[in-house]
Specification:
single chain, mainly alpha, Methane Monooxygenase Hydroxylase, Chain G, domain 1, 27 helices
Length: 610
């Protein structure tokens, strides 16, 4: 083979590797988009059940075609404090099993089906001609990716076949039988390219063409399993202690598996028998399948061995990554208390948009709860004429302002990713929801300022005014509860209840305006207290409007959601709860009805006269 032919084959090999890697990414990304709701369901089911965790980890990784992406995402969950180390351990074990599906796909290349599966690139290309963002488009892109995997494998295998003619190159590879050297090479090479799939694809191509013997490749694969941990280790830099421990758990799992199999392989060799011989016996004449099955055996057997020792693995990770040094007072000397923190979202989750969207919605619900807490504090302060909770209020308001900026920025990043049409609508809607929640916080801040004014100027409300404010407050709280449930469950059926309570808040504002005019005419209220009273009920009414906007935001995407995931059927129990709630509401509205029936006509006349 001439020097020109060698260079030509090197470039063809690189071209094949590029097509292969792009195919893996395209297949994983588009399967993830198509199965986005299923991914959300999987992670919502995470519990302390280790078998459930393994299943979730395997399922998610099989869909997104990357154990590294799953592990990085788990690091993000632990860093956000929404997944424990015990839960993370079982998910990581499952991710290592799920990643073997990639090697199994590659092994099909040796079954003479390459030409047929490669034709899927054409099928996928035709499907891509449909409307962008549709499910057909995404499925077509996934098929295109699958086809490209085999096109890339074919190119790599073909060029490897050419290199086989170079006796010096072939002899060099086959003479390198030092297990330690092969192991270190696999670890370093995978850490460098940060893709165990690419490393495995190259090894399968080399093995299929006889460039390396299978026993040597097995040692490289053991190293590959160590090198793939580098992605999680890098992702853990700058995270919490537990997040670093999560990356350590991934490393511990693969190190243990590698040591265990190294001992087994060494014992087999001592008995004049090899792992390669055993695989040849089980899967004769198919090197690609033999390597894929060894990769599967490694992860499945390691998981079975360690599944009963999750507690001990967590303890070992804790020893490897100890808590940060503390002062005598127990304060972490390296950390400063920061109010401006995120509870559910993490940059690492952007690798899986479906999960990122689910988590950002949780962060928004948390922000909504904070706004409600501040509304409660504001109403308590105005009714009791006290500023005792002002400091807590200001801290929460600072957090609300931070969340407004941080969530909006996170939504921008998600919107730039490849997401489904429904998720695009959802992201656009969530921008407005975050703004509405921030405005609720601002109106609550106005109410605290009215309290400040009342304290400084000694402004007093009459008993009737306080009673009416509390009644309007209760209606606003009822509205919040229904809005929260409708938004969190994406339940269109609750919008009627939302509108009912919003109308009730509006009606209270009208009635309280009338009652205020009457008290002014009777000299019960002063002009100063009247100005504060009118501003207060106006702010409460606007809070109700913003809450209603939040509930109505689900209209943009709820109607096209996947029925198997999001569609809600109101059960008999739910109906009973609604009836009980409506019964309670009647008691709350009793005073309202008295005002309307007994005094409405006279008060309206007073308004006209004024």
């Amino acid at each position: 083979m001439s020097a020109f032919e060698i260079i030509e084959n090197v470039f063809l090999f690189l071209a094949g590797l590029g097509v292969f890697l792009y195919g893996i990414q395209s297949l994983g990304d588009n399967l993830e988009t198509v199965a986005g709701d299923k991914l959300r369901i999987m992670f919502n089911k995470i519990s302390n059940n280790r078998f459930m965790g393994v299943g979730i980890g395997a399922g998610v990784t099989a869909l997104i075609q990357s154990s590294s992406a799953t592990t990085v995402m788990v690091v993000g969950f632990v860093n956000a404090g929404i997944m424990t180390l015990t839960q993370a351990t079982s998910v990581i074990m499952g991710a290592n099993i799920g990643t073997t599906i990639t090697a199994q796909i590659m092994s099909l290349e040796a079954l003479n089906v390459t030409i047929y599966i490669s034709a899927l690139t054409c099928v996928g290309a035709f499907m891509l001609m449909s409307a962008k963002g549709s499910k057909i488009y995404k499925i077509g892109a996934a098929l295109l990716g699958l086809g490209m995997i085999f096109v890339g494998l074919h190119l790599m295998s073909t060029t490897m076949g050419q290199f086989k003619e170079l006796e010096a190159f072939k002899n060099f590879l086959q003479s390198t039988d030092n297990a330690f050297v092969l192991f270190i090479f696999g670890a370093l090479f995978t850490a460098l390219i940060q893709s165990s799939s690419a490393a495995t694809g190259i090894l399968i191509a080399m093995g299929s063409n006889g460039l390396m013997v299978i026993d040597s490749i097995i040692w490289v694969i053991l190293g590959v399993n160590i090198g793939t941990c580098i992605t999680a280790v890098l992702a853990a830099i700058g995270t919490s202690t537990n997040a670093k421990r999560t990356a350590a758990i991934h490393l511990i799992f693969n190190v243990f598996g590698s040591i265990f199999f190294a001992i087994i392989i060494s014992c087999m060799q001592a008995g004049n028998y090899s792992m390669g011989t055993m695989l040849e016996t089980l899967f004769p004449g198919n090197v690609a399948t033999q390597l894929a099955m060894f990769h599967t055996f490694f992860n499945v057997i390691t998981t079975l061995l360690l599944l009963g020792f999750i507690k001990q693995i967590v303890q070992l990770a804790t020893l490897c990554v100890p808590d940060k040094r503390r002062t005598k007072k127990g304060v972490d000397i390296s950390d400063k208390v920061e109010v401006e923190t995120l509870k559910f979202i993490d940059e690492r989750m952007l690798n899986t948009p479906a999960i990122a969207i689910a988590q950002v919605k949780k962060e928004i619900l948390y922000m909504f709860e904070l706004a409600k807490f501040n509304f409660d504090r504001a109403m308590n302060s105005i009714c009791k004429k006290t500023l005792s909770e002002k400091e807590d209020f200001e801290t929460t308001e600072k957090q609300l302002n931070f969340l407004n900026r941080a969530i909006a920025g996170y939504l921008v990043k998600i919107s730039s990713l490849d997401i489904s049409f429904r998720d695009e609508l959802m992201i656009g809607s969530l921008y407005h929801v975050v703004s509405d929640i921030e405005r609720i916080g601002d109106y609550a801040e106005n109410i605290v300022e009215y309290t400040q004014k009342s304290v400084e100027e000694n402004i007093e409300f009459s008993e009737d005014a306080i009673k009416e404010i509390k009644l309007m407050t209760q209606s606003t709280i009822n509205l919040y509860e229904n809005v929260y449930e409708a938004f969190s469950k994406c339940d269109l059926s609750m919008l009627d209840d939302v509108n009912k309570y919003e109308n009730e808040v509006d009606e209270w504002k009208r009635i309280l305006n009338i009652r205020h005019v009457e008290r002014l005419n009777q000299g019960i209220c002063s002009p100063a207290s009247g100005a504060v009273f009118l501003s207060l009920i106006s702010n409460m009414e606007r809070i109700g409007d913003h809450m209603t906007n939040i509930a109505n935001s689900i209209k943009d995407y709820a109607k096209i959601q996947n029925k198997s995931v999001d569609a809600k059927i109101i059960s008999g129990t739910d109906m009973k709860k609604k009836k009980d709630k409506n019964k309670d509401d009647k008691d709350i509205k009793k005073d309202s009805n008295d005002i309307k029936n007994q005094e409405l006509k006279e008060e309206e006349n007073s308004t006209v006269n004024e």
